Amino acid sequence: MFKTGASLRRIVTCLGVALVFVACGGDGGSGSGSGAPAAVPTTLVPAPSPVLTVAIGTALESVPSVTLKDQYGAGMANVWIQWTPSSGNIFADSSLTNANGTATSGTWTLGTVSGLQTLTARAGALSVVAMAANVSPGPMVGLVTVSTTVTGVVGSTLSTPASVKAVDKYGNGVPNIFVQFAMWAGNGSITGNRQATNENGIATVGSWKLGPLSGQQSIRADDHITGATTMVHATALPAPASQFVVIDGNAQTGQAGKRLCTSPIIAVRDQYGNGIGQIPIVFAPGAGSGTVTEASVVSNAGNGYAAVGTWTLSGSVTQTLVVTSPAVPGASLTLTATVAPGVAFSVCTRYLGASGTPRQRQAVTTAVQRWQRVIAGHAQTSTLAENANRCFPGQPAINEVVEDLLLFVQIAPMDGPGTMVARAGPCAVHLPSGLTQMGLLQLDSADLELLLGQGTLDNLVTHELGHVLGFGTLWYSQNVLSGAGTNDPFFTGASARAQFALLPNSYAGTPVPVEGTGEIGTRDAHWRHAVFNTELMQGFTAPNMPMSRVTVGSLADLGYVVDVSKADAFSFPSTARASTTTATALVRDVLDTDIWGSTKNGRRVLVQGARNPLVWR
Fold this sequence. Notes:
The chain is mainly beta and 617 residues long.
């Protein structure tokens, strides 16, 4: 980094000599004769000065001097000399030459840039380096990253080295500092993990092989003496696309002539499983496997996902959809769908994100099938247009025709173990029927393993789907609840009351008794536990929760076509209700949000306002 004293003396001497100008006038005499040209500044000669090696910011004790001479070699008095440092500052930046033509600078305080610093003297057009100093950096105070745009393919060794710089408080590089490198993120590997900084203060790791995950990978650099640390980041790009994997929508069951509820989604990935975007994808139905829309798409730049528009099934029992790409020769993926007998009431179930284990999703399927057994007729088909996140956070934008019910399921953390284990309800209804068009069933993943162990998971999910259908949630808009907010609310629907009367019971109050205790979302939305004990739609879970004729009748009161004969066997307890010490209370399990409907001309109508707007806000 620094010049030797001998080389700096040569620089100063050469600069001085280069500025000697030989006068062109006269006969080369001393100028003492008459008629000689007037004296003009011709040379500026520095006094010999040692090359100094000093620390940043030092105020030099010795001051340089220069002598200004005319064309005859005589010193010129009373001429201003300007002093200019390359760094730092000078106490007096100009001085007059004395009778011998010599001028001395003021005190020079060195600047904050390490390396060679110079002080230049100027007289008119003449200039010369009067003094030079070799300036050492100050003590190290930190490490900074030098490599800021490092990029490579996963699994490869980077061609651009990962470098850091040891710096003093002014940012000058500090040599001979030992830096320890270590992998920090990305599961890569390095060699030469201990390096000394060079003359510029830079230390470079021996090599860096990126790990298998695309995205940001990192190395940490440390100086264990000062505790200084910094990070070097690299952007790891995916390897070439090599495979397709299923994300959602495979192995669905549907009806002939109808589109599948969930459009199949696949991902394009490299050999390490990284998603790759901008890959052209073709979805092609197999022989006798229906039709698709948006068969040619491009994978998403963020995650490599690609989805077919819709897949409408034919009459074959088993059908296939083959995924290929001209950009990934030799790779293919086959999706399947099964045609099942038609059902009277359609439920299109869509999961939000990677919701749930296979067993937890099976609980949803079981719940749907259980309600489909008692709902014996089609509800309504109508267009649903909703902006994203209107009903609940994470809700996608929707613009489609919905037959009967569109059900979103989210299995994710809610409030940790205990307290609120689930929440469900409608967001939109068909008009004019007022029956649920779209709803959400949300399950707290922190509670589901416990419920599965207790044997109550399937019953819980079935209970929550009842709220989506309108039990306890559409009672206000359908005007079938009386006494809300009191300690004795009751359901007024004629069908439920008739079924209640058919079951032997000793209840002396006004039927059908509704829960009058607990918080909003518990009270006024369940059958009264003290009367119904473990029936499906009271507010506690149990291993055996029968769906009674009363519950099925309540759906008829909302407007559904039902088959009461498909209800489970149920009888009211003849004594005080059983203990609930091992049961889970369903606290605030009703989704409390505005419920909207759309008229045939597209006008949106608020059907029922949220009773407690703070639930989602």
